[in-house]
Each structure stands twice: as C-alpha cells, then as structure tokens.
Design goal:
Order of helices and strands: HHHHEEHHEEH
Number of helices: 7
Number of domains: 1
Structural class: mainly alpha
Distance between the termini: 69 Å
Strand content: under 5%
Helix content: 55-70%
Radius of gyration: 20 Å
Length: 215
C-alpha cells in the first residue's frame, strides 16, 4: 500500500486514527521544542494567538456565536481544501499538521494572550485543554478524515499550478461511516464552543454567588 493510499484508507476510522496520531506527535514535539529552546511568551501577540481570542466580547451569546463562526469557518476550509489533492494527498490534511505545530509552540512557550498556564496545576490544565482545544482538534480531524475522498482536482507535478479535474462535484458520495464522523465532528465543535464560552462566564457567576453569600 502506497503512502497516498494509506492516507485515503477505505476505512474512515483508520484515517481518523492516523491523522490524530500524526497531530499528537507533531504537537507534543513542538511543545517540547518551545518549552526547552524558546523564551516564554515567544508567540504572544502574534496573529495566530490573536485569532483564537477574537471572540471575547463580554456577553455569553455573542461570544458563543463568534466562536462557532470561527470554528465552522475552519470546517468550511477543511472541506474545500479536500477538493484538491497534490500527488493524491488531500490538501485538507495540512490543517491538522499546521495546527499541531502552532498549538504545540504556543502552549510550550506559554504564549496564550488571555491566560497564564502557570495558574493551573497539571491536573486542572490537562482537563481544561482536553475539554476545549482537544475537542476542537478532534472535531477538525473527524471532518478532514471524513471528506478526504472528495478529490475533485488533482495535481501530480510540483510545478503544475492548475490541477486537472478528475471528477465532478456531483460525483462526491459519503459512506455511512463518513457521515457519522462528519456529524460527530460538528457535534464536538458545538460542545467545545459552549464549553469555551461558558468557562469564563461560569467563573464569574461562581464569584458573584460567593460574594453574595459572605456579604
């Protein structure tokens, strides 16, 4: 089995596992690089960090709407990117790999603009990361893996800027397992967006109730 056939494995769950494994390997590696070799806050203030913090508006529903808009714009990019293939490699696969690099570096250098990772212990921090960013990343991987077979346009040369059309949009079909993965990814994005938005507002509510109780 060739590399291209491996990444477009007939079993969508195998594609999910391989892509998730690659993302984890890249993310963990760049985390260690950032932690040991780069200064703290190295990426703070960069466009990548700012893009993940644009939804802070102060109201729950507006923040939730902006977070969902941001997340689903990435989903749309994943689907559209998988219409193109380079050497039979789905272009949408580039997104999880690039996100693995950036998230590893940002967390490894403690470059988040809205929080300091040092305020969390390892236990709480791991749970927080897995229940928000971890869910979002798994959702993107499910979307990318389930649409990897789209491949309407194909380029088999490095210098071929205009890819050849190998099938029509109407020929695209998703299997039941691919539909299941796609739906699962969308559900996980909804859960992660709610979790991310509710977290700061939930903390404020707890603080208000605490003050009211001791007043």
């Amino acid at each position: 089995m060739s590399i291209s056939q491996l990444w477009k494995h007939e079993n969508v769950f195998m594609r999910v596992l391989m892509l998730y494994g690659l993302f984890t390997l890249v993310s963990n590696s760049t985390f260690l690089i950032g932690y040991y070799f780069l200064p703290e806050g190295f990426m703070r203030g960069s466009p990548l960090v700012a893009a993940g913090h644009f939804a802070v508006t102060g109201t729950f529903w507006s923040e939730l709407a902006l977070t969902l808009m941001f997340n689903f714009s990435i989903v749309a990019y994943c689907v559209l990117a998988n219409l193109f293939q380079k050497f039979s490699f789905p272009i949408g696969y580039v997104l999880p790999i690039s996100l693995g690099i950036t998230t590893g570096l940002i967390s490894g250098t403690n470059s988040f603009s809205s929080s300091d990772l040092k305020q969390y212990n390892a236990w709480d921090g791991a749970a927080l990361g897995m229940s928000i960013g971890g869910l979002e990343m798994l959702a993107y991987i499910l979307v990318v893996a389930s649409t990897a077979g789209f491949g309407v346009y194909l380029s088999n040369r490095w210098w071929q800027w205009k890819p050849a059309k190998v099938k029509n949009l109407g020929d695209i079909r998703l299997s039941r397992s691919e539909i299941f993965c796609l739906a699962g990814g969308i559900i996980l994005l909804l859960v992660a967006a709610y979790r991310e938005t509710a977290m700061p507002h939930g903390l404020v509510a707890v603080a208000v109730r605490f003050i009211q109780n001791i007043a």
